[in-house]
Design brief:
- It contains 7 helices and 2 strands, in the order ααββααααα.
- The protein has a two-stranded antiparallel sheet with strand order 1-2.
- A hairpin with a 2-residue loop joins strand 1 and strand 2.
- Helix 5 crosses helix 7.
- It is elongated and about 70 Å long.
Length: 149
């Protein structure tokens, strides 16, 4: 068993957030000894899932709904699976978007390395993508497709 302070340190989550999760009923089986919260393996796994769902973009109200589905048992398996399928797509889309961001950064690092070496941007500014090194061209092309302005 772990104290709230130990869990806070383990996960890098403020104690106030852990108390909020408890108040919201996200740890329904948490034990208390003399009023002090005791986090066991069940709460640790629950916290891992909560943090995963939060990082995937899910709001606390939807996480609470998921936790309610968990309490319902096997009858909610399909709902839970659908939630994770949806979040998987959300995360994949975000990874694609961030890969385009990273590719733009990679291109700009290369671009300014060239400008520094040349003493100006003249050559690199007018360069066709087909004249760029393959890795840079790939990054440039990925960064410039599906750009939302």
């Amino acid at each position: 068993m772990y104290t709230i302070g130990q869990i806070s340190e383990m996960f890098g989550i403020p104690i106030s957030t852990l108390r909020y999760y408890d108040k919201e009923g996200l740890f329904p089986t948490m034990e208390r000894v003399s009023g002090i919260r005791q986090f066991g393996e069940s709460e640790i796994e629950t916290l891992r899932v909560i943090e995963c769902l939060k990082k995937s973009g899910l709001e606390i109200k939807d996480i609470k709904l998921f936790m309610e589905w968990c309490r319902q048992g096997s009858e909610s398996y399909s709902k839970r699976r659908e939630l994770f399928l949806k979040q998987r797509e959300t995360v994949k889309s975000e990874i694609e978007r961030m890969n385009r961001v990273l590719d733009m950064i990679e291109f700009k690092c290369w671009y300014y390395e060239q400008a520094i070496a040349d003493g100006n941007e003249d050559r690199v500014k007018t360069m066709s993508s087909k004249d760029m090194p393959e890795e840079i061209r790939t990054a440039y092309e990925n960064a410039h497709k599906h750009m939302v302005v």
